[in-house]
Amino acid sequence: MRFDGEEGGGTLLYLFDVRPVEKLTLLQKFAGTFLKDITLGVILIDTEFRLIDISEMACRVLGLDKEKSVGRPMEEVFRHVPSQHQLIQPSILNGMVVRNHAVSWTNNQERYELLLDSNLLKDEQGETVGAYVIFKDVSNLRSLEEQVQRSDRLAMIGQIAAGTAHEIRNPLTSIKGFMQVLKNTFIERGMSKEQDYTDIMLTEINRINELCSEFLLLSKPKHATMERVSLQSVMREILPIIHNEALLYGINVIYDGVAEMPEVVADGELLKQVFLNICKNGIEAMGEGGLLKITEHVLLEERKVCIEIHDTGPGIPNFVIDKIFDPFYTTKENGTGLGLSVCQRIIHDIGGTIRVSSKGFGTTFSVMIPFP
Fold it and tell me: How far is CA 110 from the centre of its chain?
């Protein structure tokens, strides 16, 4: 640029170095896009262990409000979680590097399986200015892996059950028949003590017979009649049974239905068995008093319908929750440990899933079934 003044003319030259600006803009765009990535959870903290920024996906998984959380100490952000179970520990600022660390996280009533990475952030002089945590939700992959493992175990048990259940039932039928004859004889002769013994033996025989029935269902489910079924109709048919069972324990039942729900392709009788079993487990877990809530959802994007069954019982410990679908695993004194295995088999056969979440003050079973 040239200019003229009283004492002569001169030239003023402006020089711009656009390279750093372009570089910074590119990094800013990348950072903004990275934080908005719906498949990654990103958390940034400073050297004071305060939350500097957090991605939308991390807020959703961790159940946080971004506006209320940013700028606060991490201890306050996760104040509702015991310190030893918090997702991010202060030791991260001491240089502890984490790679592909598997973590389970329960947000309200939904459980997530996460793969977590973390590292320090340093400036040009090598001084620590903060740290970052990145995680990915791998719940579906973990769920698929667990289903494959359980399917293998169920297949092995099914092979054993198919060859033995019928053989056990045959002598049981004879024993039960003769035991009933003896019972009638004891009644006729007024032998009350012996009659009590036969009642106990008949009860145990019936229990063995029920176990054999569950074996057979586990190994080869009964012939399923696949047809379009209304889950709302299924739930309304079994609600009186659930209410009657709950009354025995002084438990209230709340049914929160939706106006319309798509039909699913399944066997209605088998679905009744699934929901009755889960509801009965919830009622028994609460003992005396409590609330059993049954909620319907329609997940249009996933093309699935969901029935959530929530109880206000003591919850399921973390070291138990991964085993409850395993055959023969039970915490009940007289349980067989096959109920939930059979339920999972029924739902899995129609392309659905069963998920369970618990935070120590209640348990939620979510049964999701695809609709055409």
Answer: 6
Please state which of the ranges 37-41, 330-334, 343-347 shows the lowest mean pLDDT.
330-334
With 50 as the cut, is the pLDDT of residue 120 above it?
yes
Looking at the predicted structure, is the pLDDT value of residue 236 above 70? yes
Give the model confidence (pLDDT) of 52-85 as tens digits. 888 888 888 888 888 888 888 888 888 777 766 6
CA distance 211 to 161: 10
DSSP 93: G
Q: What is the DSSP letter of 203?
A: H
Three-state DSSP at 250 gives coil
What CA–CA distance (Å, rounded) separates 148 from 153? 9
| 206, HSE (Cβ side, Cα atoms, 13 Å) | 7
DSSP 124: T
Which tens digits make up the pLDDT trace of 280-329? 888 888 888 889 999 999 988 888 999 999 998 888 777 777 777 776 65
Reported confidence tier of residue 175, pLDDT bands at 50, 70, 90 = confident
Q: What DSSP string describes 54-84?
A: E-HHHHHHHT--HHHHTTSBHHHHTTTS-GG
- Contacts of residue 207, defined as CB under 8 A and 6 or more positions apart, other chains included, come to 334
Asked whether 325 and 338 are in contact (CB, 8 A), the reply is no
Q: Give the position of tokens 């979680």.
A: 81
Phi, psi of 99 (to 5 degrees): -135, 125
- Pick from 61, 165, 151, 187: which is nearest to 113 by CA? 61
**Which two structure tokens, joined as six digits, stand for 77?**
């952000």
Pairing state between β 251-256 and 290-299: parallel
- Residues across the chain: 372
